[in-house]
Structure formats: C-alpha cells, structure tokens
Amino acid sequence: MKVAILGTGYVGLSTGVALAEIGHHVCCIDVDEKKIARLKQGKSPIYEPGLEELLVKNLAAGRLRFTTSHREGISGAEIVILAVGTPQSNDGAADLTYLEQAARDVAVHLQQDTIVVIKSTVPVGTNDKMKQLIEAYCSEDVSIQIVSNPEFLRQGSAMKDTLEADRIIIGCDDRKAGDKVRELYRPLNVPVVMTSLRSAEMIKYASNAFLAMKISFINGMANVCEAVGADILDVAKGMGMDKRIGNSFLQAGIGYGGSCFPKDVQALYHTTKQHNVDFGLLGETMELNEQQRVLLVKKAFERFNGKIAGKKIAMLGLAFKPETDDMREAPSIPISLELTRQGADVIAYDPVATSNAQKILGNRIAYAKTIQEAVAGADAVLIVTEWDEIKQLEPSKLVEDMNEAIIFDGRNCLNEEKIRSCSKIEYYPVGRPAIIKYAGK
Ligand SMILES: NC(=O)c1ccc[n+]([C@@H]2O[C@H](COP(=O)([O-])OP(=O)(O)OC[C@H]3O[C@@H](n4cnc5c(N)ncnc54)[C@H](O)[C@@H]3O)[C@@H](O)[C@H]2O)c1
User: Fold this and answer.
1) pLDDT at 438 over 90
2) Which CATH architecture has domain 204-291?
3) What mean pLDDT is predicted for residues 187-206?
4) Residues annotated catalytic, as ranges
5) Is the domain covering 294-436 a CATH 3.10.105.10 domain?
C-alpha cells in the first residue's frame, strides 16, 4: 500500500520504517528540515537500537522516502497516518495544537478518498473532532474515513515493539476503513482488536495509566519495605509469581518519566475532572511519582545530616530510561535541580543523553565523558539510569577513586554480592536494607 506519515518522531519514524520493512511504500513527512535532511542520508535523528539499519535498508530498497512537503508526501497515499506530538498543556489536558495543524496540512492536500489514521495519543472524542476539522478544510470533493490506531511502543525498543507488538488496536466507525488498516498490518501477524473510535482512544490511556499506577504502587511498597525492614525485591518476586499480578513493572525505583506516562496520566485525570468522575487513584499515582523522583536527594540529605552544600555528587545516567537519549520528564532533571539548589556540585555521566541533557540543564551541572571521570573525588554516587555499563560496574573499582564510598542506587541495579565483597562501602538501594561496611569519613 502507499502510506504517508506525518511526524518522524519516535512513533512516526518507527512506524514508517516498520511499514516499509513489511513491503509498503512509505513517505514520511516532517516540518523539521534538519531531521528530514538527516533521514534522507540514512541517519536516524534519535537513538533507537536497530532503527538505523532498517532505515538504510528500506531507503536503498526504494520503499521509504522523506520530505518536508505535505503536498508531495500525501500525493497518492491511500492511508495517511498522523503521528505528531500531543504534549501536556498548562492545565494538564493534552495539547492538540500540532495534531490540528497536521490535520489541516492533510486536508488541504487531499486529492482522493483517503483513510486518515490517528496514531498520536489523544483524549476520547478527538478522532471525531479531527474528522470534522479535515472535512472543513478539504479543498477537493473527497471522502475521509478516520481510524484510531494508538501506539504502544516503548522507547529503547521501538523497532522490536513495532514489529512484534502485543496487539494492534483499530478503532473505527466505518468497518471497511478499519479492515483496510488491518490489512496494512497483516504481515506483522499480530493480534488485532477492532473497536469503536472512542474505545480505541481510551485503551491507550487506560493502558498507560495502569502501568504508571503499577510503578507507583511498587514504589510505595518499596518505601514501606524500607520502613519495616522487608526487601522489595523478594516482595515483588513473590507478588509477580501470581499470574493475576504478573512480574513486569514491579521494579521499584525512582519513578516513571519519559514523554508518555506523565502526560498521559495527567490528561486522563483531566478528562475525569471534566466529566465529574471521581478517580483519585490517578492523582495518587502522580503524587507518589513526584515524591519518588527526588527520593535519592532525600536519602542523601539524611545521610549527610542536611549538609549537601559543597558535596561533589556523581550522577550516573541522565536519560529517563536506558537505551534512549530522551530526556523528557527524566528523574535526573528534578534530582539535578534539587541537589544544585541545595549547593551540591553535580557531575553527570550518560552514554548517549548528555547533549539532550545540556539543552535542559545547561551549566547548572557538569558533564563527564566517562564514569571514572564522574566519580573521581565524589562524596556520593547516585545511580539514576540503569544502562548496562552501569549495571555491570565493579563496586570495588567504582568506589576506589571516590572521596567517600557512598552509593545511592535508584534502580537497585548493582550486584549485591559484589557490594557485599567490598571492604569499604555504604550502599543505599530502594526498598531494601542498606549495606554499610564503612561509616564514611
Ligand atoms: N514516544 C513514545 O514512546 C510514544 C509511545 C506511544 C505513543 N506515543 C504518542 O505518539 C505521538 C508522537 O510521539 P513522539 O514521541 O513520536 O513525538 P515526537 O515529538 O518525537 O515527534 C513528533 C514529530 O512530529 C513533527 N510534526 C509536528 N507537526 C507536524 C506537521 N504538521 N507535519 C509533519 N510533522 C509534524 C515534529 O517536528 C516531530 O518531529 C504522541 O501523541 C505520543 O504521546 C509516543
């Protein structure tokens, strides 16, 4: 099929590459000229494992094109997919400005009957509104069918998640249009749920809110475990073996971040308020997460008896999670702001997110090129993102050049046995008993 995609972010680009990989002819459109120039050369503007290889392969095969021209990109497309951003607006609702603009961009260039698929995460009722908007701006006598097809990929495994999704949700009022979108994805051999537009829109929010709630729940449990002397790893293992609970998303840590969970829970909460539905659990989920994001600062404050000013703190990891360079809503941001507000000197290391972090944190903190450079002379290490190279660190080596051998592990990712074999260390995980082999200076 001939497909056009508006937006070459994490979702639009992964979808475009995946659809080309399964044999469709895809044109990806973006208003960002720099991005498109890079993509035309086969270079991915985002860090996503496996994406660039498939990008190069499908460009060479002639199944994938990139343009900044909506007219050129949409021309002849049977299906147009909207995958532009829907960030959070000031009142917590989803900001639909980009989507509305994208819908107008499509409308004015449509020259044939077309199925418009909305892949962006949007509040219930948005697909209906976009249909009206496109019809209002359509210059030609063409018919539009709208299909809601929310995306569930995770950054860091976007290609794999797109090609091997758990399910594909297709929401439509027009069955023929829905069937055509089902046909688009058929080569992926993924289970499909066909539903109404509104249910499809809601499935996305319900899924993200549930996962965020699961994270906040286990983090809340971790805090209780710490208070009563239980170990959250054992508690989560025991809980997760119950098939009704499942063991994923039960890793206690310093909260969720990224471009989806925070804004999606907030947007759903906003919807509940608009409709006078009492759903306090969503508010609690967000509140717990806010507290958890600065848990390591609280722990450091207590350990240093409130005297953080002048301490050199090494922060390992900046990205909101491993395998991505995305800094949106990363816990490293509030941690950096709070530590520096209290007068600490923060030096951070991340294998890929440093330049994105610099755009947000500027020179408020320093940036190291290696882990060794970050930890040299540090009074404490904060583990913020569980990159493989951080997980595999030898704790005895890590603390060698530190001023004080104090580690706050926000992801419970260092090897416990290796920690125990250190002769001098203070190790503070989340929701687990601390290991203290040395009382510091
Ligand atoms: N990132 C994720 O992990 C993820 C997962 C599932 C769903 N989603 C949802 O998918 C949507 C897109 O997310 P993303 O992370 O890919 O966004 P993004 O911000 O990475 O990319 C959006 C892209 O759209 C482009 N754009 C904006 N207006 C345009 C227009 N009129 N025409 C063409 N291009 C335009 C921007 O330049 C940008 O490159 C959001 O609604 C998000 O909530 C994201």
Assistant:
1) no
2) Orthogonal Bundle (1.10)
3) 98
4) 260
5) no
